Amino acid sequence: MKIKIFVILFFLIISCSSHSVDEIHLIPSNFRGVVTIIFDSTKTVAEYEDNKRIYRIPESGLLNTGGRISKEFHKETFYFVDEFGNRKVIQQNINNESNYDSNEVIIWGNISGSFIKSNNKSKSHFIQYIVTNRHDLEYYLNMRNNMNFENKNN
After folding, report:
1. N or C: which end of the chain has fewer CB within 10 A?
2. What is the domain range of residue 119?
3. 152 is a domain residue
4. How is residue 135 annotated by DSSP?
């Protein structure tokens, strides 16, 4: 009986000790559109600030980054960043709520997935979300649905 309790406690401790890294997404203050972050790039190294993963989204909205996609529960914080580096928190619509002002720019439709690269048949992972107001959301949803990942990750 003592062995069973020990084994159960051991596995509980191991399962609770998995470490996830919170994320900070820095988005240009005038950006509106689809953000795509493609992981496993060999050209860049993952960036960290205060033990949090940093994603500096370029004006194009497409970021190829080193490291791996987080598959564990973690906190994501989104900021608009102006030309002086000042940050302003962007709200995230997690439950498809409709109680936002139609002109308020927020984060919508955070999704993740993978695709097969045609050049070497390896798999890359990505996350996508939309930065816009409710009024323009349908336009960017259609844009995202028609995106092709071909030649976006080298």
Report:
1. N
2. 21-145
3. no
4. G
Residue 133 CB coordination number (10 Å) = 16
Number of domains in the chain: 1
Distances, alpha carbon 93 to alpha carbons 87, 99, 127, in Å = 19, 10, 16
> Is-above-0.90 flag for pTM?
no
Question: Is residue 26 included in any domain, yes or no?
Answer: yes
Joined together, the tokens standing for residue 81 give 């960043």
Which residues make Cβ contacts (< 8 Å) with residue 95, sequence separation at least 6? Answer: none
Please name the residue ranges forming H helices in the chain: 2-16, 137-145
**Residue 11, domain member (yes or no):** no
d(CA 122, CA 58): 25
**15 assigned to some structural domain:** no
pLDDT digit string (tens) for the chain, length 154 residues = 555 554 454 444 444 445 578 999 999 999 999 999 998 767 777 888 999 999 999 999 999 888 777 777 788 999 999 999 999 999 998 766 667 777 899 999 888 888 887 776 778 889 999 999 988 999 999 999 888 765 454 4
